[in-house]
Amino acid sequence: MGWESGGTEPLEVRPGSQLRKGTETSCCPAVSCQPGSQSPGRRPARNLWSHTCTHTFALRCLRLAHGADPRLRASCPRRGAAWQAGGLTPRVPDAEGILTPSLESGSPSSDDRFQKPGTHTFTQTMSGKGSVVLAYSGGLDTSCILVWLKEQGYDVIAYLANIGQKEDFEEARKKALKLGAKKVFIEDVSKEFVEEFIWPAVQSSALYEDRYLLGTSLARPCIARKQVEIAQREGAKYVSHGATGKGNDQVRFELTCYSLAPQIKVIAPWRMPEFYNRFQGRSDLMEYAKQHGIPIPVTPKSPWSMDENLMHISYEAGILENPKNQAPPGLYTKTQDPAKGPNTPDILEIEFKKGVPVKVTNVKDGTTHRSSLELFVYLNEIAGKHGVGRIDIVENRFIGMKSRGIYETPAGTVLYHAHLDIEAFTMDREVRKIKQGLGLKFAELVYTGFWHSPECEFVRHCIAKSQERVEGKVQVSVFKGQVYILGRESPLSLYNEELVSMNVQGDYEPIDATGFININSLRLKEYHRLQSKVAGK
């Protein structure tokens, strides 16, 4: 908090500091002083105070200090009496960061109040800490963080990414502004999410630990990239997020931010002791939200968290933290219970070029979609109504602990199976072996947040090269939670029907297989000959 005194150099009152050694006379440990006197006209030095304050003036300093910091007001056990003494009413900073104490009716004028023997005329100001772009979802955590950042003196710019989730974005905008956001940006990144993040994952057949299709992992670098763009455009030095200190998202967000803007500063409340010591869990956040009038979409009875984007939705926390507990009824929102799905399958024909889906056609009714976004949304709709894409897993987080997650990835699951099929149909065997290894590495790098690393760029380039001949159409049946491959065709197929036929000899001489078997058996014969010697000793 800055103070100016008759054109002299700024002085500072720090919470918990003592103005002089002596008996504390303030009502809380925010400011301490000792009664005394000051020589008129003495120029203040740069340290905390170069003179002793009168007890009355110290209390006025205390009241103004409390006005600038809501945390101090809340900690003061006798704040009511202290505020009213001298007729001061606390005010929060305005948009420019200026805090002006008001005068109550019947109180002396500001000049009378401060221009007394042995004192100077003071004007209180509070310099803001600057602007921070908060990745805002409208949920419990980021709503509370928005208010908390305001309490810390930041101008908060709320940024909400439209990444395909079902959300009332206009309502979210109103909520953020109501909670004190300086500006709100709602950015539609759905199309770039599909084309620049999901399609490379489809090409790579990426699975983390054999089952997870990386829905959240892929979304984070897309969201953070736009967050950095906004921070640079608005001149903000800080970005912030609501990722916990135990999860992967904190790494994904921040590695992206530091890659794209090395000078950016990240405020991660869940790693700050003053935040996580105050909010031990979601129940504390809900109580804080209640105190500050923050609408929240969760209740103590169903406190699991959800994260949705175009590719998937995840469920974690609450009763789900016990891996033995089954998912409660009604938890799933993106897919229907397979047992209650349609009793007839949907037959889809998916066309690929360079490993990327370019067209989907419903064979039954002729519905066709070609644009990347429309195609993906349609596959979500069809696969979702058949209950495709549900998994319940325990995975290894990057930071070392295991966690339980429930995921719904309908469109991603259909494309995973269809792409695997057309790839096997068109790709050389040895190239595919190498590509499979690259796919595993790609999944690991995406999961751990290294999307913008040089190694991930290299892997993506290699995978894209491998997909140049992956072209053709695959027909799939989507039914009762499953994806069944029905057939495929391609102008670039390596499948030779005549060569493989059991009815036509073609260019293949069966006698050649004898030498092939003899050569490949040589290594095995030698190995087991040695094993027999060892066993006989």
From TrEMBL:
It is an enzyme of class 6 (ligase). It comes from the Eukaryota. Pfam families: Arginosuc_syn_C (PF20979), Arginosuc_synth (PF00764). Residues 1-25 are annotated as: Disordered. It is found in: Cytoplasm, Cytosol. It catalyses: L-citrulline + L-aspartate + ATP = 2-(N(omega)-L-arginino)succinate + AMP + diphosphate + H(+). Keywords: Amino-acid biosynthesis, Arginine biosynthesis, ATP-binding, Cytoplasm, Ligase, Nucleotide-binding, Phosphoprotein, Urea cycle. The keyword Oxidoreductase does not apply. Pathway: Amino-acid biosynthesis; L-arginine biosynthesis; L-arginine from L-ornithine and carbamoyl phosphate: step 2/3; Nitrogen metabolism; urea cycle; (N(omega)-L-arginino)succinate from L-aspartate and L-citrulline: step 1/1. Gene3D superfamilies: Argininosuccinate synthetase, chain A, domain 2, HUPs, Single helix bin. Its EC number is 6.3.4.5. Residues 132-295 form the Arginosuccinate synthase-like N-terminal domain. GO terms for cellular component: cytosol. GO terms for molecular function: argininosuccinate synthase activity; ATP binding. GO terms for biological process: argininosuccinate metabolic process; L-arginine biosynthetic process; urea cycle. Belongs to the argininosuccinate synthase family. Type 1 subfamily. Homotetramer. Interacts with NMRAL1. Interacts with CLOCK; in a circadian manner. Forms tissue-specific complexes with ASL, SLC7A1, HSP90AA1 and nitric oxide synthase NOS1, NOS2 or NOS3; the complex regulates cell-autonomous L-arginine synthesis and citrulline recycling while channeling extracellular L-arginine to nitric oxide synthesis pathway. PANTHER family: ARGININOSUCCINATE SYNTHASE. This is Argininosuccinate synthase. It comes from Myotis myotis.
